[in-house]
Amino acid sequence: MDIIKDIFNLFGLETKLFIAQIVNFAILLFILKKFLYKPIAQMLEERRNKIKQGLEDAENAHKTLLDADTQKIAILKTAKNDADKILENVKVTSETLKQQSAQDAKKQAAEIIETAKKQAKDEFDKATKQVGAISIDLSKKIVSKVLSEIFTDEEKTAVLSKAIDKIESAGYEKTTN
Amino acid sequence: MSLAPNILFHIGTFPVTNTLVTTLVVDAIIIALVVAFRAGLSLYPKKLQNVLEMMYEYFYDSTKDVSSKVAIIYPWVITFFLFIVIANLIGQFPGFETIRFFAAGSGEEGVPLFRTATSDLNVTAAFAVISIFMCHFYSIKHTGVKNYIGRFISFKMFPIFMFVGLLEFIGEFTKVISLACRLFGNLFAGETVMSTVSSMCAFGVPLPFMMLELMVAVIQAIVFAMLTMAFMSIMTDNH
Q1: Closest Cα partner for B82 from B43, B117, B45, B120?
Q2: How far is CA A16 from CA A110, B39, B100, in A?
Q3: Cis peptide upstream of residue B159 (ω within 30 degrees of 0)
Q4: What is the ipTM, given to two decimal places?
Q5: Closest CA to B117 of B21, B32, B200
Q6: With an 8 Å Cβ cutoff, are B121 and A21 in contact?
Q7: Which of B2, B49, B56 sits opposite A37 (nearest CB)?
Q8: B37 within 8 A of B48, measured Cβ to Cβ
Protein backbone atom coordinates (compact mmCIF):
# COMPACT_ATOMS: atom_id res chain seq x y z
CA MET A 1 0.00 0.00 0.00
CA ASP A 2 2.88 2.30 0.77
CA ILE A 3 4.26 1.74 -2.72
CA ILE A 4 0.94 2.69 -4.28
CA LYS A 5 0.78 5.73 -2.05
CA ASP A 6 4.30 6.67 -3.10
CA ILE A 7 3.41 6.26 -6.77
CA PHE A 8 0.30 8.40 -6.27
CA ASN A 9 2.40 11.06 -4.54
CA LEU A 10 5.09 10.88 -7.24
CA PHE A 11 2.54 11.49 -10.01
CA GLY A 12 0.59 13.96 -7.89
CA LEU A 13 -2.56 11.87 -8.06
CA GLU A 14 -5.14 13.49 -5.84
CA THR A 15 -8.72 12.27 -5.45
CA LYS A 16 -10.11 15.81 -5.34
CA LEU A 17 -8.30 16.84 -8.51
CA PHE A 18 -9.32 13.61 -10.18
CA ILE A 19 -13.01 14.20 -9.34
CA ALA A 20 -12.67 17.87 -10.34
CA GLN A 21 -11.44 16.80 -13.79
CA ILE A 22 -14.34 14.36 -14.17
CA VAL A 23 -16.86 17.07 -13.20
CA ASN A 24 -15.12 19.54 -15.51
CA PHE A 25 -15.34 17.10 -18.40
CA ALA A 26 -19.00 16.32 -17.69
CA ILE A 27 -19.90 20.04 -17.71
CA LEU A 28 -17.90 20.57 -20.89
CA LEU A 29 -19.61 17.62 -22.57
CA PHE A 30 -23.02 18.96 -21.59
CA ILE A 31 -22.22 22.43 -22.94
CA LEU A 32 -20.77 21.11 -26.18
CA LYS A 33 -23.64 18.69 -26.73
CA LYS A 34 -26.24 21.38 -26.23
CA PHE A 35 -24.57 24.38 -27.82
CA LEU A 36 -22.21 22.94 -30.42
CA TYR A 37 -23.06 19.44 -31.63
CA LYS A 38 -26.81 19.95 -31.79
CA PRO A 39 -26.63 23.21 -33.82
CA ILE A 40 -23.98 21.71 -36.11
CA ALA A 41 -26.12 18.60 -36.68
CA GLN A 42 -29.20 20.77 -37.36
CA MET A 43 -27.23 23.04 -39.69
CA LEU A 44 -25.77 20.09 -41.61
CA GLU A 45 -29.22 18.51 -41.88
CA GLU A 46 -30.73 21.80 -43.06
CA ARG A 47 -27.94 22.25 -45.61
CA ARG A 48 -28.30 18.63 -46.76
CA ASN A 49 -32.05 19.13 -47.23
CA LYS A 50 -31.48 22.39 -49.07
CA ILE A 51 -28.92 20.81 -51.39
CA LYS A 52 -31.23 17.83 -51.91
CA GLN A 53 -34.14 20.17 -52.65
CA GLY A 54 -31.95 22.21 -54.99
CA LEU A 55 -30.83 19.09 -56.84
CA GLU A 56 -34.42 17.84 -57.07
CA ASP A 57 -35.55 21.24 -58.38
CA ALA A 58 -32.76 21.24 -60.92
CA GLU A 59 -33.68 17.70 -61.95
CA ASN A 60 -37.36 18.68 -62.26
CA ALA A 61 -36.44 21.79 -64.23
CA HIS A 62 -34.31 19.66 -66.52
CA LYS A 63 -37.18 17.19 -66.97
CA THR A 64 -39.62 20.04 -67.61
CA LEU A 65 -37.23 21.48 -70.15
CA LEU A 66 -36.91 18.12 -71.86
CA ASP A 67 -40.72 17.72 -71.81
CA ALA A 68 -41.09 21.21 -73.23
CA ASP A 69 -38.60 20.36 -75.97
CA THR A 70 -40.44 17.14 -76.73
CA GLN A 71 -43.76 19.00 -76.73
CA LYS A 72 -42.28 21.71 -78.93
CA ILE A 73 -41.02 19.13 -81.40
CA ALA A 74 -44.41 17.35 -81.35
CA ILE A 75 -46.29 20.63 -81.83
CA LEU A 76 -43.97 21.66 -84.66
CA LYS A 77 -44.40 18.23 -86.25
CA THR A 78 -48.21 18.46 -85.96
CA ALA A 79 -48.15 22.01 -87.29
CA LYS A 80 -45.97 20.94 -90.21
CA ASN A 81 -48.31 18.03 -90.95
CA ASP A 82 -51.32 20.35 -90.74
CA ALA A 83 -49.61 22.88 -92.98
CA ASP A 84 -48.74 20.13 -95.47
CA LYS A 85 -52.34 18.88 -95.43
CA ILE A 86 -53.67 22.43 -95.90
CA LEU A 87 -51.26 23.01 -98.77
CA GLU A 88 -52.27 19.71 -100.34
CA ASN A 89 -55.94 20.61 -99.95
CA VAL A 90 -55.32 24.04 -101.44
CA LYS A 91 -53.52 22.46 -104.36
CA VAL A 92 -56.34 19.97 -104.94
CA THR A 93 -58.99 22.66 -104.54
CA SER A 94 -57.20 25.07 -106.84
CA GLU A 95 -56.71 22.31 -109.43
CA THR A 96 -60.40 21.42 -109.20
CA LEU A 97 -61.37 25.09 -109.45
CA LYS A 98 -59.02 25.52 -112.36
CA GLN A 99 -60.50 22.53 -114.17
CA GLN A 100 -64.04 23.62 -113.34
CA SER A 101 -63.31 27.16 -114.52
CA ALA A 102 -61.85 25.80 -117.76
CA GLN A 103 -64.87 23.57 -118.28
CA ASP A 104 -67.24 26.47 -117.49
CA ALA A 105 -65.33 28.70 -119.87
CA LYS A 106 -65.48 26.04 -122.59
CA LYS A 107 -69.16 25.50 -121.96
CA GLN A 108 -69.85 29.23 -122.03
CA ALA A 109 -67.78 29.61 -125.20
CA ALA A 110 -69.69 26.74 -126.81
CA GLU A 111 -72.99 28.30 -125.75
CA ILE A 112 -71.92 31.71 -127.08
CA ILE A 113 -70.83 30.11 -130.35
CA GLU A 114 -74.09 28.16 -130.54
CA THR A 115 -76.14 31.29 -129.85
CA ALA A 116 -74.13 33.23 -132.43
CA LYS A 117 -74.62 30.47 -134.97
CA LYS A 118 -78.35 30.38 -134.28
CA GLN A 119 -78.59 34.15 -134.53
CA ALA A 120 -76.62 34.10 -137.77
CA LYS A 121 -78.86 31.39 -139.15
CA ASP A 122 -81.95 33.29 -138.08
CA GLU A 123 -80.59 36.44 -139.66
CA PHE A 124 -79.73 34.53 -142.79
CA ASP A 125 -83.20 32.96 -142.98
CA LYS A 126 -84.77 36.28 -142.36
CA ALA A 127 -82.64 37.95 -145.02
CA THR A 128 -83.34 35.10 -147.43
CA LYS A 129 -87.07 35.47 -146.88
CA GLN A 130 -86.87 39.21 -147.32
CA VAL A 131 -84.78 38.81 -150.51
CA GLY A 132 -87.31 36.19 -151.74
CA ALA A 133 -90.23 38.50 -151.11
CA ILE A 134 -88.48 41.36 -152.80
CA SER A 135 -87.63 39.09 -155.71
CA ILE A 136 -91.26 37.99 -156.05
CA ASP A 137 -92.49 41.55 -155.97
CA LEU A 138 -89.87 42.59 -158.42
CA SER A 139 -90.59 39.61 -160.68
CA LYS A 140 -94.28 40.31 -160.37
CA LYS A 141 -93.80 43.87 -161.44
CA ILE A 142 -91.48 42.92 -164.29
CA VAL A 143 -93.78 40.16 -165.54
CA SER A 144 -96.83 42.36 -165.09
CA LYS A 145 -95.24 45.13 -167.10
CA VAL A 146 -94.09 42.74 -169.81
CA LEU A 147 -97.39 40.87 -169.97
CA SER A 148 -99.49 43.96 -169.93
CA GLU A 149 -98.19 44.73 -173.38
CA ILE A 150 -98.81 41.20 -174.82
CA PHE A 151 -101.80 39.66 -172.96
CA THR A 152 -105.20 40.76 -171.87
CA ASP A 153 -105.99 41.43 -168.27
CA GLU A 154 -107.48 37.96 -167.75
CA GLU A 155 -104.58 36.18 -169.43
CA LYS A 156 -102.21 38.40 -167.60
CA THR A 157 -103.79 37.49 -164.24
CA ALA A 158 -103.72 33.77 -165.08
CA VAL A 159 -100.08 33.83 -166.20
CA LEU A 160 -99.18 35.98 -163.24
CA SER A 161 -100.84 33.65 -160.80
CA LYS A 162 -99.15 30.66 -162.33
CA ALA A 163 -95.80 32.39 -162.20
CA ILE A 164 -96.32 33.42 -158.58
CA ASP A 165 -97.29 29.90 -157.65
CA LYS A 166 -94.14 28.56 -159.25
CA ILE A 167 -92.04 31.14 -157.47
CA GLU A 168 -93.76 30.37 -154.23
CA SER A 169 -93.34 26.69 -154.76
CA ALA A 170 -89.65 27.45 -155.20
CA GLY A 171 -89.67 28.62 -151.55
CA TYR A 172 -90.22 32.39 -151.55
CA GLU A 173 -93.18 33.90 -149.76
CA LYS A 174 -95.33 36.54 -151.28
CA THR A 175 -95.09 40.00 -149.80
CA THR A 176 -98.11 41.92 -148.72
CA ASN A 177 -98.04 44.23 -151.82
CA MET B 1 10.36 19.18 -14.07
CA SER B 2 8.28 17.16 -11.66
CA LEU B 3 5.85 14.42 -12.61
CA ALA B 4 3.26 15.90 -10.29
CA PRO B 5 1.59 19.22 -11.11
CA ASN B 6 2.55 22.24 -9.02
CA ILE B 7 0.09 23.35 -6.38
CA LEU B 8 -0.47 27.09 -6.70
CA PHE B 9 -2.77 27.61 -3.75
CA HIS B 10 -5.58 25.96 -1.82
CA ILE B 11 -9.27 26.78 -1.73
CA GLY B 12 -10.17 25.29 1.61
CA THR B 13 -8.67 21.82 1.36
CA PHE B 14 -8.92 21.79 -2.42
CA PRO B 15 -5.53 22.13 -4.09
CA VAL B 16 -5.46 24.38 -7.16
CA THR B 17 -2.69 23.17 -9.45
CA ASN B 18 -1.23 24.77 -12.58
CA THR B 19 -2.73 21.97 -14.69
CA LEU B 20 -6.14 22.76 -13.23
CA VAL B 21 -5.69 26.42 -14.16
CA THR B 22 -4.73 25.33 -17.68
CA THR B 23 -7.79 23.08 -17.77
CA LEU B 24 -9.95 26.12 -16.98
CA VAL B 25 -8.15 28.10 -19.70
CA VAL B 26 -8.88 25.26 -22.17
CA ASP B 27 -12.52 25.29 -21.05
CA ALA B 28 -12.63 29.06 -21.60
CA ILE B 29 -11.13 28.69 -25.09
CA ILE B 30 -13.66 25.97 -26.00
CA ILE B 31 -16.57 28.03 -24.64
CA ALA B 32 -15.28 31.08 -26.55
CA LEU B 33 -15.18 28.94 -29.70
CA VAL B 34 -18.76 27.80 -29.07
CA VAL B 35 -19.91 31.40 -28.51
CA ALA B 36 -18.10 32.57 -31.66
CA PHE B 37 -19.55 29.63 -33.59
CA ARG B 38 -23.10 30.38 -32.47
CA ALA B 39 -22.70 34.09 -33.18
CA GLY B 40 -21.68 33.43 -36.77
CA LEU B 41 -23.89 30.39 -37.35
CA SER B 42 -25.06 30.46 -40.94
CA LEU B 43 -26.24 28.15 -43.70
CA TYR B 44 -23.22 29.36 -45.65
CA PRO B 45 -20.34 28.57 -43.29
CA LYS B 46 -17.31 30.78 -42.74
CA LYS B 47 -13.88 29.90 -41.36
CA LEU B 48 -14.61 28.77 -37.77
CA GLN B 49 -17.91 27.11 -38.66
CA ASN B 50 -16.18 25.31 -41.53
CA VAL B 51 -13.46 23.97 -39.23
CA LEU B 52 -15.91 22.84 -36.55
CA GLU B 53 -18.27 21.29 -39.08
CA MET B 54 -15.37 19.50 -40.74
CA MET B 55 -14.20 18.12 -37.38
CA TYR B 56 -17.76 17.12 -36.47
CA GLU B 57 -18.36 15.36 -39.77
CA TYR B 58 -15.00 13.58 -39.65
CA PHE B 59 -15.65 12.06 -36.22
CA TYR B 60 -19.36 11.51 -36.85
CA ASP B 61 -18.67 9.65 -40.10
CA SER B 62 -15.80 7.69 -38.54
CA THR B 63 -18.08 6.61 -35.69
CA LYS B 64 -20.83 5.74 -38.16
CA ASP B 65 -18.39 3.50 -40.03
CA VAL B 66 -17.62 1.39 -36.97
CA SER B 67 -20.79 1.46 -34.91
CA SER B 68 -24.55 1.53 -35.21
CA LYS B 69 -24.77 3.52 -31.94
CA VAL B 70 -23.33 6.62 -33.52
CA ALA B 71 -25.67 9.04 -31.73
CA ILE B 72 -24.45 8.05 -28.28
CA ILE B 73 -20.77 7.61 -29.09
CA TYR B 74 -19.82 10.61 -31.20
CA PRO B 75 -20.29 13.35 -28.54
CA TRP B 76 -17.76 11.62 -26.28
CA VAL B 77 -15.30 11.14 -29.10
CA ILE B 78 -15.44 14.76 -30.29
CA THR B 79 -15.32 16.19 -26.76
CA PHE B 80 -12.25 14.12 -25.90
CA PHE B 81 -10.57 15.17 -29.13
CA LEU B 82 -11.45 18.84 -28.80
CA PHE B 83 -10.32 19.13 -25.19
CA ILE B 84 -7.13 17.12 -25.60
CA VAL B 85 -6.03 18.76 -28.86
CA ILE B 86 -6.52 22.27 -27.49
CA ALA B 87 -4.88 21.35 -24.17
CA ASN B 88 -1.92 19.81 -26.02
CA LEU B 89 -1.53 22.65 -28.50
CA ILE B 90 -1.66 25.56 -26.06
CA GLY B 91 1.18 23.86 -24.18
CA GLN B 92 3.30 24.25 -27.33
CA PHE B 93 3.02 28.05 -27.33
CA PRO B 94 6.46 29.51 -26.69
CA GLY B 95 6.63 31.04 -23.24
CA PHE B 96 3.55 29.20 -22.04
CA GLU B 97 5.26 27.73 -19.04
CA THR B 98 7.55 30.69 -18.38
CA ILE B 99 4.85 32.71 -16.59
CA ARG B 100 5.69 32.16 -12.97
CA PHE B 101 3.49 32.04 -9.92
CA PHE B 102 4.95 32.69 -6.54
CA ALA B 103 3.13 30.37 -4.24
CA ALA B 104 3.90 29.95 -0.59
CA GLY B 105 6.99 27.77 -0.29
CA SER B 106 7.76 27.86 -4.01
CA GLY B 107 11.03 29.69 -3.51
CA GLU B 108 12.41 32.64 -5.46
CA GLU B 109 11.81 31.10 -8.88
CA GLY B 110 8.20 30.35 -8.16
CA VAL B 111 6.27 27.72 -10.11
CA PRO B 112 4.81 27.84 -13.66
CA LEU B 113 1.32 29.32 -13.64
CA PHE B 114 0.36 27.13 -16.58
CA ARG B 115 1.32 23.60 -17.44
CA THR B 116 -0.05 21.40 -20.21
CA ALA B 117 -3.19 19.85 -18.71
CA THR B 118 -2.54 16.46 -20.29
CA SER B 119 0.89 16.25 -18.67
CA ASP B 120 -0.99 15.70 -15.39
CA LEU B 121 -1.93 12.09 -14.67
CA ASN B 122 -5.01 13.33 -12.78
CA VAL B 123 -6.41 14.67 -16.07
CA THR B 124 -5.50 11.73 -18.30
CA ALA B 125 -6.61 9.19 -15.66
CA ALA B 126 -9.91 11.03 -15.24
CA PHE B 127 -10.46 10.96 -19.00
CA ALA B 128 -9.52 7.28 -19.22
CA VAL B 129 -11.85 6.35 -16.36
CA ILE B 130 -14.71 8.37 -17.93
CA SER B 131 -14.08 6.71 -21.29
CA ILE B 132 -14.01 3.14 -19.99
CA PHE B 133 -16.79 3.71 -17.44
CA MET B 134 -19.10 5.04 -20.17
CA CYS B 135 -18.19 2.06 -22.37
CA HIS B 136 -19.44 -0.28 -19.63
CA PHE B 137 -22.47 1.88 -18.88
CA TYR B 138 -23.57 1.88 -22.53
CA SER B 139 -22.76 -1.80 -22.83
CA ILE B 140 -25.19 -2.63 -20.01
CA LYS B 141 -27.77 -0.17 -21.37
CA HIS B 142 -27.71 -1.33 -24.98
CA THR B 143 -26.80 -5.02 -24.81
CA GLY B 144 -28.41 -5.92 -21.48
CA VAL B 145 -26.96 -7.16 -18.20
CA LYS B 146 -26.86 -10.79 -19.37
CA ASN B 147 -24.80 -10.01 -22.45
CA TYR B 148 -22.59 -7.68 -20.48
CA ILE B 149 -21.78 -10.30 -17.85
CA GLY B 150 -21.40 -12.88 -20.64
CA ARG B 151 -18.39 -10.97 -21.90
CA PHE B 152 -16.49 -11.81 -18.74
CA ILE B 153 -18.05 -15.01 -17.42
CA SER B 154 -18.78 -17.86 -19.81
CA PHE B 155 -18.98 -21.61 -19.21
CA LYS B 156 -18.81 -22.53 -22.91
CA MET B 157 -15.86 -24.78 -23.78
CA PHE B 158 -14.83 -24.68 -20.12
CA PRO B 159 -12.24 -23.51 -19.14
CA ILE B 160 -11.15 -21.73 -22.34
CA PHE B 161 -13.85 -19.04 -22.40
CA MET B 162 -13.61 -18.70 -18.64
CA PHE B 163 -9.99 -17.80 -19.11
CA VAL B 164 -10.80 -15.49 -22.04
CA GLY B 165 -13.37 -13.79 -19.80
CA LEU B 166 -10.78 -13.34 -17.11
CA LEU B 167 -8.41 -11.77 -19.66
CA GLU B 168 -11.23 -9.48 -20.80
CA PHE B 169 -11.83 -8.46 -17.20
CA ILE B 170 -8.17 -7.66 -16.64
CA GLY B 171 -8.12 -5.97 -20.07
CA GLU B 172 -10.66 -3.42 -18.91
CA PHE B 173 -8.28 -2.21 -16.22
CA THR B 174 -5.34 -2.20 -18.57
CA LYS B 175 -7.40 -0.14 -21.00
CA VAL B 176 -7.72 2.57 -18.35
CA ILE B 177 -4.02 2.41 -17.54
CA SER B 178 -2.94 2.38 -21.19
CA LEU B 179 -5.23 5.28 -22.14
CA ALA B 180 -4.13 7.38 -19.19
CA CYS B 181 -0.43 6.58 -19.35
CA ARG B 182 -0.11 6.88 -23.14
CA LEU B 183 -1.42 10.42 -23.20
CA PHE B 184 0.35 11.44 -20.03
CA GLY B 185 3.64 9.80 -21.07
CA ASN B 186 3.69 11.34 -24.55
CA LEU B 187 2.92 14.84 -23.37
CA PHE B 188 5.11 14.76 -20.29
CA ALA B 189 8.01 13.27 -22.26
CA GLY B 190 7.54 15.92 -24.94
CA GLU B 191 7.63 18.71 -22.39
CA THR B 192 10.69 17.24 -20.74
CA VAL B 193 12.47 16.94 -24.10
CA MET B 194 11.53 20.52 -25.05
CA SER B 195 12.64 21.81 -21.66
CA THR B 196 15.98 19.96 -21.90
CA VAL B 197 16.67 20.98 -25.50
CA SER B 198 15.68 24.60 -24.87
CA SER B 199 17.96 24.78 -21.84
CA MET B 200 20.84 23.42 -23.96
CA CYS B 201 20.31 25.79 -26.90
CA ALA B 202 17.39 28.20 -26.99
CA PHE B 203 17.65 29.18 -30.69
CA GLY B 204 17.05 26.98 -33.73
CA VAL B 205 17.70 23.60 -32.17
CA PRO B 206 14.27 23.24 -30.48
CA LEU B 207 12.47 23.88 -33.81
CA PRO B 208 12.46 20.23 -35.05
CA PHE B 209 11.37 19.10 -31.60
CA MET B 210 8.59 21.72 -31.62
CA MET B 211 7.42 20.37 -34.96
CA LEU B 212 7.49 16.86 -33.56
CA GLU B 213 5.58 17.97 -30.46
CA LEU B 214 2.93 19.67 -32.58
CA MET B 215 2.42 16.39 -34.42
CA VAL B 216 2.36 14.43 -31.18
CA ALA B 217 -0.19 16.88 -29.74
CA VAL B 218 -2.63 16.25 -32.59
CA ILE B 219 -1.89 12.54 -32.99
CA GLN B 220 -2.36 11.78 -29.29
CA ALA B 221 -5.69 13.58 -29.27
CA ILE B 222 -6.83 11.57 -32.29
CA VAL B 223 -5.52 8.31 -30.72
CA PHE B 224 -7.41 8.91 -27.48
CA ALA B 225 -10.62 9.83 -29.32
CA MET B 226 -10.36 6.91 -31.75
CA LEU B 227 -9.63 4.39 -29.00
CA THR B 228 -12.66 5.63 -27.06
CA MET B 229 -14.69 5.23 -30.24
CA ALA B 230 -13.40 1.68 -30.78
CA PHE B 231 -13.95 0.63 -27.15
CA MET B 232 -17.47 2.07 -27.07
CA SER B 233 -18.28 0.48 -30.41
CA ILE B 234 -17.08 -2.95 -29.26
CA MET B 235 -18.88 -2.71 -25.94
CA THR B 236 -22.22 -1.51 -27.33
CA ASP B 237 -22.46 -4.12 -30.09
CA ASN B 238 -23.81 -7.58 -29.31
CA HIS B 239 -21.32 -10.44 -29.45
Answers
A1: B117
A2: 136, 36, 24
A3: yes
A4: 0.92
A5: B21
A6: no
A7: B56
A8: yes
